[in-house]
Amino acid sequence: MKRLKFVRYGGLSPLKQKHYVVDGEEKGFHNPPRRKGLYCMIQGYEERFLLGATDSPRHISGKTQWLKDDNGDLIKYNDDWGYDEKTFKLKYPREIKQLLKKRGFKINQVKTESLVENIECPDEYEIKDSCDGCPVFERCQQSRITYLAILKRPRIIEYTGELWHHLIDSVPQHEILGCSGSWVKTTYDVFVKAFNKDKHKLLKNVHKKYIEDISEINEIGKDPYKNTPIRYSKDSLEVFIEKL
Fold first, then answer.
1. I need a labelling partner for 154 at 20 to 30 A (CA). Which of 49, 97, 213, 241 fits?
2. How far is Cα 75 from Cα 66, in angstroms, rounded to an integer?
């Protein structure tokens, strides 16, 4: 059985999860199964979309840092830079590319992040992470300035302990150690078997719906998350580890 490694953006110490919802209350798909722990991804199956809620340089997880010039000042995003018509990615001027090279960063590590200056978010709205009804919302939007930030390189983790994941449909009932919302807790070995079973089921679905001849099967290979006629979301492949 092939050993899986995990990818972790940010530090390796367990974090208090402010979006934790106790069992018995309504949980969203990505609400953490426990109050403290770490979200990770399977190496080779990263889904950067999942970082969106915690990839601010101000977040405790430390996934990103501000990009600063040689004077230590933040670098503002400029609307005039435009987007590449083929890739739809932001285009950067030469001086930004030179700065990235000097700092040892890649273009794909760059992201934009907004800051609101001289306006404090009321505690209750910061805690619930929602602007609905916030009394300073309009002033906040008007004062928002966008800067460049860097998504730090992830850490590669070898972990073989118990973990939480979403692959409940591929786990026999007697091998489930715990449940919380859409999450199940299993041993590492059970998770690896569930992951391989999940890929096999998806691959059968691809063959059934989209394959017309043997040459197409050869082109796709054995992994439905890669090189398929449709792009399967990897959101369900996140894992949650209580402690490394």
1. 97
2. 8
| Cα(111)–Cα(130) distance, integer angstroms | 22
- Which residue among 118, 133, 151 closes a domain? 151
Condensed to tens digits (0 to 9), the pLDDT of residues 137-174 reads: 676 666 678 889 999 999 999 999 999 999 999 999 99
Q: pTM value?
A: 0.78
Are both 198 and 239 inside the same structural domain? yes
- Ranges of beta strands (E only) in 33-87 are 36-42, 64-66
What is the rounded (10 degree) CA torsion for 61, 27, 30, 36? 30
Beta strands 178-180 and 183-186 are antiparallel
SS3 7: strand
Domains: count for the chain: 2
Q: Of 84, 117, 151, which closes a domain?
A: 151
Rounded distance between C-alpha atoms, residue 199 and residue 169, angstroms: 12
Instruction: List the domain range (segments joined by +) for residue 23.
Output: 1-54+160-244
